[in-house]
Fold this sequence. Notes:
The protein is of the alpha+beta class.
Amino acid sequence: MxxxxxxxxxxxxxxxxxxxxxxxxxxxxxxxxxxxxxxxxAPIVGTVNIRGANGKTSDNEINAxxxxxxxxxxxxxxxxxxxxxxxxxNNVKLYTTVDTAKKNANITPATNLVLTMALGQDPAAxxxxxxxxxxxxxxxxxxxxxxxxxxxxRVFDSLGMPEDFNLMKGMP
Length: 172
């Protein structure tokens, strides 16, 4: 199977898995925190790291079911978020971003693709070469998400996913 076909099949399966996920819990926690699901076809076993615009970082282990929660009270929005670990025996490092605390932020191949589109290149390369590089603003993320949704519209239709499916949160 070609890499492109494998990638499409993997992404379709992954989107089916997360289509019902909303990151667990709600956005109403009293503490400033970001929570979500870190998965790449299976839950990621590893750590979620978050860097705020002020350069400070915070991290936490990912739970066995892929859920995570990280305290960001010492960080300033917007936030760069990445998960490092293994999923199905493969090493993974995936990225996402969120513009405020108390939000759900899933970390998946789809969120990584949205961030790649917004940056114009692989987030791993951007942040390896410049760990202090800024995250794209929310309008750039929304635009990139719409581009990815357009590219995958046939896949979404075939899976019966709602048109307003949010790639960054995993729900409408």
